[in-house]
Amino acid sequence: MSAKRKTTVAVLFGGRSVEHDVSVVTGKQVMRAFDPERYEVVPVYINRDGRWFTGEPLLDLKTFQNEVASLKGIKETILSPATHHHGFIISPVSGLFSKSEVQRVDVVFPALHGSHGEDGTIQGLCELADIAYVGCGVLASAAANDKIMTKTILQQHNIPVVKGVSVSRSEWEDDPDTVIQRITKALPYPVFVKPATLGSSIGVGRANDEAILRASLDVATNFDRSVLVEQAVTDGVEINCALLGNGEKIRASVLEQPMSFEQFLTYEEKYLRGGEGMKSAERIIPAPLSDELTAKIKDIAVRGFKAIGGRGTARIDFLVKPEQGEVYLNEINTMPGSVAFYLWQHEGMSFSDMVDELVELAREAHAEKRRNMYNYQTNLIEVAAMRGLKGIKGAKSPRPVQS
Questions:
Q1: Whole-angstrom Cα distance, residue 23 to residue 278?
Q2: Any idea which of 5-14, 55-64, 335-344 has the lowest mean pLDDT?
Q3: Are the C-beta atoms of 330 and 196 separated by less than 8 Å?
Q4: Are strands 101-104 and 226-231 parallel, antiparallel or unpaired?
Q5: What secondary structure does DSSP assign to 74-142, as a single string?
Q6: Which of 103, 125, 342, 377 is the most exposed place for a label (fewest CB within 10 A)?
Q7: What does pLDDT average to over the chain?
Q8: Full-model pTM
Q9: Residues 6+ apart with CB under 8 A from 302
Q10: In this structure, are residues 303 and 248 in contact, taking their beta carbons and an 8 Å threshold?
Q11: Helix 138-145 to helix 147-156 angle, to the nearest 10 degrees?
Q12: Which helix (H) or strand (E) holds 232?
């Protein structure tokens, strides 16, 4: 009897994003978590310019201190959108001494953060390739990646969010005085200024007066074409909750309270103050909240995730006033740093167990999607060929052809 075939998982990390370095660390943690007896891990690194590479040296974090493309054992690759490849084309531009080869994979694990990875783009490519992938689908990824769109969807589902005003880059450049008037009429100081599609607190500023507001808008509009200005929740704390599951079977993790030494949690506090990744950052787990408030936050987290059509995993960030019992859903991260494994680890789940479950959830979602019918044939082409394209304008719809 032959041994059971290993599951081949391609882990994508890096990316053309300001969160590139965070993704490299997350990718390394994910790859290390897979049991080598059960999985074949294919590392796929996307550099800052958008070139894709694969090769065994990418399993070592020290590799990224050098120019990856020049290292021995590294080859360029691309994810083929053609379903018959079902994987990656290695050395896609072959030469005299090399030829292309196909690396088939069972599952893609996009350990990518922010632009060109967490925003529905990679997810759409996986859909074209008909390959199972970890995390949210195209629509949920795109919606959650845009803070303005997220707020709109959550409001429609009666999920509490803080008041905000959206500003486009062109508005700010064309008429900054009118923009300032619109913001200050709707929101009292202090306010937070956030690029709409970035995470990890990059480009985020807190403004207590008009001068700082103008400076913060200058910074934020350099990072994104759309900016969200939100009313600050004073005397509140940040509370985070991770989720796992598909459909109606979504469960919430223990809650955490990140500890900030600044007025909001900065990039440095999230990633650089502790050790590797998010695991050792300053935080209180479980968050010091009442059982009633904890249950309320978990319920809102699950409802918010379902509102965007989420699946797989996410970390939901909240702003909470414990004394008043006020809860505001602040952000949905569909691929959080370190996949938020530290929250599940507190409940007894190892990182290895977590990636196992994420792969199974990806396969489950893929199997559900494949139940859809895509082959629907009609005699429209035959009719068009007989009558000409102009001849079928306004004609009755052709009858479907049974296939």
A1: 11
A2: 55-64
A3: no
A4: unpaired
A5: -EEEEE---TTT-EEEESSS--TT---EEEE-SEEEE---STTTSSSHHHHHHHHHT-EESS--HHHHH
A6: 377
A7: 89
A8: 0.88
A9: 243, 250, 251, 252
A10: no
A11: 110
A12: none
- Round to whole Å and give the CA distance between 64 and 166: 37
Contacts of 49 (CB under 8 A, 6+ apart): 16
Contact 217, 179 (CB under 8 A): yes
**Cis amide linkage into residue 81, ω under 30° from 0:** no
Rounded Cα gap, residues 49 and 16, in angstroms: 6
Helix (H) or strand (E) holding 312: strand 312-321
- The structural domains of the chain, ordered by start, are 7-133 (3.40.50.20), 163-231 (3.30.1490.20), 235-369 (3.30.470.20), 373-403 (no CATH)
> What DSSP string runs through 169-217?
HHHHHH-HHHHHHHHHHH-PSSEEEEETT--TTTT-EEESSHHHHHHHH
d(Cα 200, Cα 336) in Å, to the nearest integer?
A: 9
Sign for the CA dihedral angle at 217, 223, 226, 231 comes to negative
CA angle in degrees (0–180, nearest 5) for 65-67-69: 135
How far, in Å, CA of 53 to CA of 69, rounded?
8
Per-residue pLDDT tens over the stretch 218-270: 999 999 999 999 999 988 999 999 999 999 999 999 999 998 644 455 544 44
Give backbone dihedrals phi and psi of 16, rounded to 5 degrees, phi first. Answer: -85, 75
Q: For residue 394, name the pLDDT band (cuts at 50, 70, 90).
A: low
What's at 326, amino acid-wise? E
Please state whether the peptide bond connecting residue 43 to the residue before it is cis, i.e. omega within 30 degrees of 0. Answer: no
The most confident of 17-21, 109-113, 260-264, by mean pLDDT: 109-113
What's the Cα-to-Cα distance from 295 to each of 59, 81, 204, 300, rounded to whole Å? 40, 43, 30, 9
Distance between first and last Cα of the chain: 39
- Using CB atoms within 10 A of its CB, is residue 169 exposed (0-12), middle (13-18) or buried (19+)? middle
Least confident span in 115-129, 209-223, 274-288, 318-332: 274-288
